[in-house]
Amino acid sequence: MTAIRLLLVDDDPLVRAGLSFMLGGADDVEIVGEAADGDEVEALVDRTRPDVVLMDIRMPGTDGLTATERLRGRADAPQVVVLTTFHADEQVLRALRAGAAGFVLKDTPPAQILDAVRKVAAGDPVLSPAVTRRLMEHAAGTGTDARRTRARARIAVLNDREREVAVAVGRGLANAAVAAELYMSVATVKTHVSRILAKLGLDNRVQIALLAYDAGLLDDHHDDGR
Question: Which end of the chain is more exposed for a tag (fewer CB within 10 A), N or C?
Answer without folding.
Answer: N
